[in-house]
Write a structure and sequence with these properties.
The structure holds 2 protein chains of 2 kinds. By secondary structure, chain A is α/β, with parallel strands linked by helices. Chain A contains 16 helices and 16 strands. The chains are: A alpha/beta, B alpha/beta.
Chain lengths: 405, 136
């Protein structure tokens, strides 16, 4: 990979060991993927985890004097204020990891957004063709496909390094030729929001890492929640960072206008029945539930409003912890309009800065719960917490009844 | 038989180890850092210890971060593999080997990779950017 004089100087350590380390990682990645050079990025998103490996690298960058050069946001870990509420008996090591995470964010001048839906609310900052470096795997599909911005599916470390240098190696989805559709997916029905997530689960299993599917059969632009879940689930069962929705998303519209859509693409057909089968498999686990998890990825404002309406005057069963994870910005909005206090009275806990796959929810492990997210189901399984996966309406009913039947 | 394979290397040092080939990607997060044993349910190599071995696999696996932590925990416990060899790299696996300083090789032709599947020993020469493959 070609480096400018200025980039060479950074690599040699002339701007400190932190910058040199970030540059070294970008150069290694650039060489592995045959990038020709580094290109500037506008924004970066560090998919931090509160895990040791990722944190140790960030600390080495920070102690070497590195700070981010372009606005860099972060994924959630967990909110320290929840420790008493969830009565989680966390050990010193677990608590210390969180403290170190907060400290290193401040040193690196990273914005502590602690949100895993950073692709929402940046539409005014991001234009078609802008280069970004995002490492929450559920965000590249939205950024690439819907906004027409360009990001690879970065690792937590490579996204942070890109934020510090302000650049990323020029390869993969930064290049026009890798953004063209290479196969077609024909869908014979119009999925609802929940079914879009399941479609992601289904296609993630079928697609290969570099595939950019052209999806046909969807007539109107899906809701932000449907797009969030579609992208997230594609990256639970697979690694798809971009797709096109025929006649809906910007790059395929442009290609069609120029008569440039590749022809004779291999076809995958998805029938409603396949999604229905998946749906019935995922709700199979029945019986009393101890918890309901929403917000994997984080819930949107309108989704939480919907939950409030669906509950009406009813309360969540006292045997159920109903947890909705969202961003601090959305939580604040809910507090201001009164929804937050209404939901608290109905027995719903809305938490900020927190990921569903964190030790703070330890007390809920070892029993059956429910969620509307396949991703939450997949990751909490590792923590010995089985979850039935239900559409939002059924999820709210299960929360009130205290069981999935 | 001994053969030189030119490839892409991420490493600041030479390394050597016996090949463990895995058809299914190894997620280092699902290994036991104290023993280096693969603990992932239904993994074809479940129960195999990877410390000091040349782990050869088709690609990486898992989210943007867990692979990094998994390899780091092995490294901190002195149980890291000697070499990681991958056919189709992704930014996560490259970041993981970089952070944990595990010598890494990629960039093979299909025929070269096919040979490695058969097992044997690998020596990684970082300056020469090559692997020395000794078949069984």
């Amino acid at each position: 990979m070609y480096l400018t004089n200025e980039e060479e100087k950074i690599l040699r350590g002339e701007e400190g060991p932190g910058m040199a380390l970030a540059m070294e990682l970008l150069v290694k990645i650039g060489d592995v993927f045959d990038a020709d050079r580094l290109i500037p990025v506008k924004l970066a998103h560090w998919g931090l985890s509160g895990q040791e490996g990722d944190l140790a690298f960030a600390e080495e960058l920070a102690s070497g004097g590195a700070k981010v050069k372009v606005p860099t946001t972060t994924n959630p870990a967990w909110d320290y204020e929840l420790i008493n509420e969830f009565n989680a008996e966390l050990n010193e090591y677990e608590i210390n990891l969180l403290k170190r995470t907060y400290e290193v964010c401040d040193k690196l001048k990273v914005t502590k957004s602690f949100s895993c839906i950073p692709m929402f609310g940046i539409e005014d900052k991001v234009k078609i063709g802008d280069h970004l470096a995002f490492s929450e795997s559920s965000t590249p599909p939205y950024l690439n496909s819907i906004l027409g911005a360009r990001t690879n599916r970065e690792s937590s470390a490579s996204a942070l390094a890109a934020g510090i240098i302000g650049k990323t190696p020029n390869y993969g989805l930064h290049l026009d030729e890798n953004r063209l559709p290479n196969l077609e997916v024909e869908i014979d029905f119009e999925p609802d929001d929940f079914e879009f997530g399941l479609l992601g689960v289904h296609l993630g299993n079928l697609l290969s890492p570099k595939d950019v599917p052209l999806i046909k059969g969807i007539k109107t632009m899906p809701s932000p929640e449907a797009l969030r879940d579609f992208g997230a689930m594609l990256n639970v069962t697979g690694t798809t960072a971009m797709y096109h929705l025929y006649r809906l998303t910007p790059e395929i519209i442009k290609l069609e206008n120029q008569n440039m859509i590749p022809k004779n693409l291999e076809k995958i057909y998805v029938e409603k029945k396949e999604i229905e089968d998946l749906k019935s498999r995922l709700k199979q686990k029945t019986g009393p539930i101890n918890s309901v998890f929403m917000g994997c990825p984080h819930s949107t404002y309108s989704e939480i409003i919907k939950v409030n309406q669906m509950l009406g005057n009813r309360k969540v069963s006292k045997n159920v912890s109903f947890i909705i994870c969202t961003s601090a910005v959305i939580l604040e909005k809910l507090k201001q309009d009164g929804t937050y206090s209404q939901l608290v009275m109905k027995g719903v806990k809305i938490v900020k800065d927190t990921c569903v796959d964190e030790p703070i929810f330890k007390q809920l492990e070892g029993a059956l719960g429910a969620t509307n997210s396949y991703k939450a189901y997949y990751y909490r399984q590792r923590r010995n917490h089985e979850l039935a996966v239900l559409p939002l309406k059924d999820l709210v009913e299960a929360a009130v009844k205290g069981k999935n039947d | 038989m001994i053969e030189k394979i030119r490839c892409k290397i991420v490493s600041e040092r030479d390394a050597e180890g016996e090949i463990i080939y895995s058809d299914s990607p190894v997620n280092f997060y699902l290994t036991d850092p104290k023993t280096s044993e693969i603990i992932e349910e239904n993994h074809p190599l479940k129960g195999v210890k990877i410390k000091g071995k040349a782990v050869v696999m088709p690609s990486g696996k898992g989210s943007a971060v867990v692979q990094i932590d998994g390899l780091y925990q092995l490294y901190m416990n002195g149980n890291a593999p000697a070499i990681v060899v991958v056919k189709d790299p992704d930014p996560v696996i490259v970041s993981a080997v970089f952070i944990s300083k595990v010598p890494f090789a990629t960039g093979f032709t299909d025929e070269q990779f096919e040979k490695l599947k058969k097992g044997g020993r690998l020596k990684l020469l970082h300056k020469e950017k090559e692997l020395i493959y000794e078949s069984l």
